[in-house]
Amino acid sequence: MGNNDLREGGGQAIAAALRVNTTLTDLNLWDNQLGKGGRQSITAALRVNTTLTDLNLVLNSMGEGGGPVIAAALRVNTTLTNLNLYRKDLREGGGQEIAAALRVNTMLTDLDLDDNELGEGRGQAIAAALCVNTTLTNLNLDNNLMGEGVESAVRQSLGNRGGTLLGVLEEEEEEEASSSYSSSSSSS
């Protein structure tokens, strides 16, 4: 259902179906301009849905107000294992709420938060949450302005359980790190 311009009304209709759904496990709502009403309806449906395991909400801007709504659903949802929130515009407030939800969520194994401008403080909150959360094993934090300290803390938490982290350093920082490594390697 990706890229179908569903907007708020379509998001609300899908949410109504999710509330009573007993078979659908994978839902791709990529780039549908769901808006605030669609976002709130779908995340409210996640609180009661017991079959959906994979949800892709890529490019449906939610803003900082979207983080608390998604986080509230993650606190109580018992089936969602894969959530893609790439470019949701969650920013710092949304990132803090997601981090808090990760402390209590026991189902999510894969989370993509790429390109949400979460910042270093939220990155640290996510790293701390991963010390408590033992189910999340794959996390994408690329393009979130977090820095090396966050990357190290998250990698350590995920690495202890065989998980993977996709990016934390920004492209420019990665290039600098790569050139520093190349310089030190060639001088040895």
Strand segment tally: 6
Going across the biggest sheet, name each strand in turn. Answer: 1-2-3-4-5-6
The CATH superfamily of one domain appears as: Ribonuclease Inhibitor
Number of helices: 7
Low-confidence parts lasting 5 or more residues at pLDDT below 50? 171-188
The proportion of residues forming helix, as a percent range, comes to 40-55%
Q: In CATH's first tier, which class of one domain applies?
A: Alpha Beta
Could you state the order of secondary-structure elements as H and E?
HEHEHEHEHEHEH
Shape: globular
CATH level-two architecture of one domain? Alpha-Beta Horseshoe
- Structural category is alpha/beta
Which fold name fills CATH's third level, the topology of one domain? Answer: Leucine-rich repeat, LRR (right-handed beta-alpha superhelix)
Largest sheet: 6 strands, parallel
The percent range for strand residues is 5-15%
CA gyration radius, whole angstroms:
17 Å
Give average pLDDT, whole number.
86
Q: Kindly report how far apart the N and C termini lie.
A: 53 Å
Description:
The chain is of the alpha/beta class and 188 residues long. It has a domain of 131 residues: Alpha-Beta Horseshoe (Leucine-rich repeat, LRR (right-handed beta-alpha superhelix)). It is built from seven helices and six strands. The chain has a six-stranded parallel sheet, covered by helices on one side. Strand 5, helix 6 and strand 6 form a beta-alpha-beta unit. Helix 1 packs parallel to helix 2 and helix 4 packs parallel to helix 5. The termini are far apart.
